[in-house]
Amino acid sequence: MRYTLISCVLKKSIPLTVLLLFVFGGTGSALEPISIDESLQIINIGPDTEYLLDEGRALTIEDLTRPGADRSYNWQASHPDDLRLGYVRAAVWVRFSARNTSGKEIEWLLQQNHFSMTHLVLYVLSGRTQVKTVETGVMFRYDSRPFDDPTFVFPLKLKPGEVNDYYLRFTNKYPMSINLRAASLPAFYKERDSMLPFLWIMYGFFIVMIGYNIILFLSMWEKSYFYYTLFIASFLAYMMHYNGHAGQYLWGNCTPWANNMGLIFLSMMVATVVQFVRHFISLWEYSAKLDITARVLIIANIIIGILSLFLNKYIWYGIFLIATVIFSLSLGYLALTYIAIAKKSRQAKIYLFSSALLFVAAMVFSLRALDIIPDTFLSSYGVLIGGAFQVVVLSIGIADKINLMRRDIHKAERRYRHIIESSTEIIFLLDGDLNIVSINNAVEKHLGRPVEEFVGKNFPGLIRDTWSERTQITRQLVEEQIAELFENKSSVQFRTSLQSHEKSEPEDFVVKLEYIDADDLGYKILGKVSPVTDDILLKYLNVEHFIYTMDNYLNNADLMSLRLTRNLVRYLPAHDIPLVRVAIREVLVNAIEHGNLGISFDEKTRALEKGNYFDIIHQRQRDPGLGGKKLLINYTLEEKQVVYAITDEGEGFDYKKIMGLDPMQENQKLLTHGRGLIMARATFDSIEFNERGNTIILKKKF
């Protein structure tokens, strides 16, 4: 009877008890509370937690702690180590309980051991009463954190025998990684202090290398150093951001910057390393298509990084950015492997060797960032080690590249110096004032004076005229050619006479000047001087007859005189030919000036005194009534004589007056011009004119 009563009471009370627990049941986790006592060091509390995905981000702490809430929501056991959910749009709730099993109050730390979390809220409940709420995350100022640490740490207390429930709400625009640990203060500081020296040694190393490469860039102006400096800086900035130290020490109180710079630095890191590799291996020399692809990747990463400022709230954008980074690095590594093997690029091999460790570490790091592999020392900090190794090897590699370039330049200099010094042509450089900067040894062979006597001399000052030092037309024509060179910035070629030995007659040379404008090297013009070579077929010449029509340009008079006398070498002594050439040139110049252009003797005299002689020439050449007139030149070379008939379209002149003058007496007057006919009389055996005076016939017998 007694046992029957007890049995009946139990049968009726158990359902009632279950009902009461359901209606008025506790709010804590169904898992056993974590034991907190004086022996606490650092423990991972993942196995003692449960999590809930709030897809709409609408749940509140009141929703989760109301009576009977556990039957409404699907709480799941957490992963034993870390809760890695990757990119999730949902808010993630985590709960656990903790009991102080000691006989005194315990101060302990709850740590979210991850450096990047957009928003994190901790709710502490004692029984059914909410006793504490703490809100933090990278969206808040760093100085508002409850504990000074790059991770998220909450100082907590438990009285003897007290049991508290803890709810945490996580939202993140980055991959969701939840790693909750309980720690005592001494154990926490001991672990942190053991890692900080390693991290700051690595940071300091990168900072030193940034300064080192900047100094090298400023001293050598080698672009590879500049781009490598940008890469190291962006790499360091990203690693400091990822490890939380950038927010802790640099920009943690600037929340928009701190919240967005991770994706920007990741994109800049890829863009700068691709740009560096382009220049380090001179990618365009190996493949234009690969170089274009590299440029596209650079631009794409920069644009994606900038857009992350505006699209960072979209989870798919972060996935797209990291996928772009992995694609860029993988494609770049394959391209470098191809260039190193197929093209045998020394720089590509150096880069592959230097980046092998970093590439593996970066892939591991990316998988770690995507929550595919667990968080370990190597997955978190292997990138720093690989980066340091790469920085050292590539710094040596850049120096090696520069040494190779210098060696190649030195070889090229020796090769070109040998070519120049071995040339039979006179090769020289002129500055902007036409002074000789350098000249090769051929000048000694052709002009009979050592190189030292020419360096620093003005090139037009070397021009000499066969007839007389007072005849300036040759130098004036050369100066006009040089003026054209500076105006058109191209090249000019002309024939002129240069004084060789002190007591010898001037010799004819062909001069070519090219405008190259190398002011930074101290010169503007490259010049070549070649001796006039004889026609090897000249010995077969019997009769030569040409008729030329020439316009009114003085340069053409000089060129025409050369053409009309080049084959006289077979019939006249070498020292007589320059006299014939100068005389013909003077007659041609007279026919242009006084015949076709109508410049009188007095007009030319005044123009020479004022220094505007060529201005008047150019003005008359542009005159429609004068500039279109032509010279007709009839030239016949025979075995016994040469005949030149030159006709202009001018009014003619009183040739009888000029022909009656005494050549020697007029030469003593040292006239600056007007001696064309006098020179012709002294050179040719016969001079005839037509009645009008606009045709002159010059004959010289052999």
The chain-level mean pLDDT equals 82
Quaternary organisation of the protein chains: single chain
The radius of gyration is: 47 Å
Number of distinct helices: 20
Assign a percent range to the helix content. Answer: 40-55%
Distance between the termini: 168 Å
Low-pLDDT parts are: 1-27, 466-471, 667-673
Instruction: Name the overall outline.
Output: rod-shaped
Q: Number of DSSP strands?
A: 23
Q: In percent, how much strand structure appears in the residues?
A: 15-25%
SSE class: alpha+beta
The main sheet comes to: 7 strands, mixed
Describe it for me?
This protein is of the alpha+beta class. The chain is 48% helix and 20% strand. Helix 3 (185-220) runs parallel beside helix 10 and helix 9 (346-369) runs antiparallel to helix 10. The longest helix has 46 residues, at 377-422. Residues 1-27, 466-471 and 667-673 have low confidence and may be disordered.
